Amino acid sequence: MTGRILIVDGLPTNRIILRVKLASAYYEVALAESGSSAIGMIAVRQPDAVIVSMDLPDMSGPELCARIKANPLWSEVPVIMVHGADETETRIAALSAGADDLLTRPIDELVLLARLRSLLRARDAQAELRLRDDTQRALGLAEEGAGFVVPARVAVVPTGPHRILQPLLRDLRRALPDHINLVPLDSVLRDLDQPPEVVVILEHPSSEGEGLSLLANLRASTETRHAAILYVTYPHQRHSAASALDLGANDLMCSGPEPREMVLRLQEQIRRKRHVDRLRDNVRDGLRAALTDPLTGLFNRRYALPHLARMAERAAQQRRPLAVMVADLDHFKRVNDCHGHAAGDAVLTGVARELANNLRAADLLARLGGEEFLIAMPDTDCDKALQLASRLCKLVASHPIQINPNGFHLSQTLSIGIAIAPPTRIIAISELIAMADRALYSAKADGRNQALLGTEAA
Questions:
Q1: How much of the chain, in percent, has pLDDT values that exceed 70?
Q2: Cα–Cα distance for residue pair 123/153, rounded to 1 Å
Q3: Between the N and C ends of the chain, which has fewer C-beta atoms within 10 Å?
Q4: pTM listed for this prediction
């Protein structure tokens, strides 16, 4: 399953239609016919996202949304509201209640699935940053953010003629304290003193996804990859809307640039970006000082073990598998003996870089000590873990490492042992690491340069 979705709607027909759409995309679906039953279900088993009808038998959709967002345990659960008529006042009410997005009936399946993928990606990335921030706080290394907040830099980028946008800009500047500037399409990635923190891409009514290439370039650029992006389309541009979400847009407006709705969406995107930036900076600065290995730049044992414990705890709560790997360089002593410790350091750094470049943002990579590395991959089962670990072995073996300025390269291999924390019960991280260690020893004994899956001790 790709996620658990709770559908809250008083009409059985609406619930069934949505369940069929989501089940065909491999989502696990739960159904609730009222707001009170939905709250009870969320309390028992928190879903990954909630889709709420505007009208429920016992309360309004915005009221249920507000109650979900007001609970600290549920506040980060994405909420999508569904309404009948595409009316501005309805959208404003839903966004004011904290809804992450709105869809109009009949629901466009293409946009719905793209929106869910986008929201769940953003939630997972933020949850990982928060998890790392919590780890730092437990170690006494995190600091509270500054109370003073400077105005955000917002770039409004139209894909067509922008003469008609002056009223929109005027309304945005009146409602927001931020620096809002109109930027031509061909200038947003250059000719700027400072990169924008938020980019609003406005599709022209007659365009066919002209802003999508800009969106992809913004996400690829090191200066703007973390910018919040609001993509604005019109109802007939459904393919552009879905593609924008899959390419990395943080938010989407499908009914054109309505000023009041855009103000609410920009406020939320600025708030989220500032929060994520603070978490990212906190992780970067704090860990750099005390929790990273000075040679490779990876996390060290001091950080890795408590963070792995939190990963295992979250995996058990969500009933999802967790893969734990121990990787060890093959015949590393020969490198130091034959080429010197400087060459050994270069090999360690090169292998660390290769591993880091081929893991996901949510994965944990740490140097346990010596030539041994720890890798933890959430939501990864046996088959997937073995496939990924084998790929890492091949990548390291196929990329010789430069060990001196004269261009001399040295080939290196590694062996990997894998342990899987099953989604049905909790296993202590010490046992997971021991299980991976046993598999690593087997991989070494069986010829090295390979990955093997471990089993629990008898």
A1: 92
A2: 24
A3: C
A4: 0.61
